[in-house]
Amino acid sequence: MRREQGPSAPEIVSAEDIVGRLPSIDEAMRNIEKGNSGNRGVASIPCRLFVGGLGSSINEAELREAFGAFGVIADAVILKDRGTGQSRGFGFVTMENRKDAAKAIDGLNGAELNGRRLVVNVATDRPR
């Protein structure tokens, strides 16, 4: 039945409809001269960090507080033993921005938290 209707008219769109409003050359040059980079709309890249050397008394709220000084925390987890429920001495913190994660590594790797020296680095997948 559709063939009987004939071809439909193509939808006409402008470049602004596709990519949004772009600054004019004059506006872009003024922003460069002022040192403004403008909002590029780029999403931040999250980064998962391994945190070792955790004491058995530390909880996830304390871990969030320690890393929160360096940026926004997306997630913080302390791994626990299935049988005893005790901390296994390590966990993971996901920072919402990889630049903040680098600051957290610089600031917390080798630092003391609750009397224990932390090991903080970028988490990697272990081979199975």
Account of the protein in words:
The longest helix has 11 residues, at about 100-110. Strand 2 and strand 3 form a beta hairpin. The chain starts with 14 loop residues before the first helix and ends in a 6-residue tail after the last strand. It has a four-stranded antiparallel β-sheet. It is elongated. The model has no long low-confidence stretch (mean pLDDT about 85). It has helices at about 15-20, 25-35, 60-70, 100-110; strands spanning about 45-50, 75-80, 85-95, 110-115, 115, 120. It has four helices and six strands; from the N terminus they run ααβαββαβββ. The chain has a domain at about 45-120: RRM (RNA recognition motif) domain (Alpha-Beta Plaits, 2-Layer Sandwich). The chain has about 130 residues and is α+β, with helices and mostly antiparallel strands.
> Span between N and C termini?
56 Å
What class, by secondary structure content? Answer: alpha+beta
Spatial ordering of strands, largest sheet: 2-3-1-6
What is the CATH level 1 assignment of the domain at 47-122?
A: Alpha Beta
What fold name stands as the CATH topology of the domain at 47-122?
Alpha-Beta Plaits
> Strand percentage, roughly?
15-25%
Q: Which architecture name of the domain at 47-122 does CATH use? A: 2-Layer Sandwich
Q: What gross morphology would you assign?
A: elongated
Average pLDDT: 83
Low-confidence stretches: none
- String of helices and strands: HHEHEEHEEE
The whole-angstrom Rg is 25 Å
